[in-house]
Amino acid sequence: MTKGFSAILYAFKIWLFSVLVSPIILILLSTPAASGDAFNGISKLYWLIVFIGGLCSLPSLILFMGIIYVAISWEVRKFLQKIAIQIFAVLLCSISIILFFKEIGEKEFPIEIIGLYLSTISVGIWFFDYQLPTIEEENKLSC
Prior knowledge:
It contains 6 helices and no strands. By secondary structure, the chain is an all-alpha fold.
């Protein structure tokens, strides 16, 4: 597996995990227990949040892929690479959400939503892993 493909796959897993799981937690925390009829509305709300969140975060995903590619290229332990990825993820996520809410005219930024998405991104960074190419694979690719 090439380093570039590994970075893309790792970033995509983290992004998709956050885009799909954060709305579930948000809805569970902000919606009282629902009956069967209300479940249909909650389901629509979930997919709306996933669609808007996913669409608005696509530019961040592309930047995140580049950041991960650079971080995994450093000749340091994987733990330090993931710390660097975590720091950039905090900045990227916070800036993206703040810009979104600023664009829609909000004067206050929802720290809870930023914290929620940062939590799922952080879990993804430390739960998922990336594979660096072995020396043999690098040699095959460079030939």
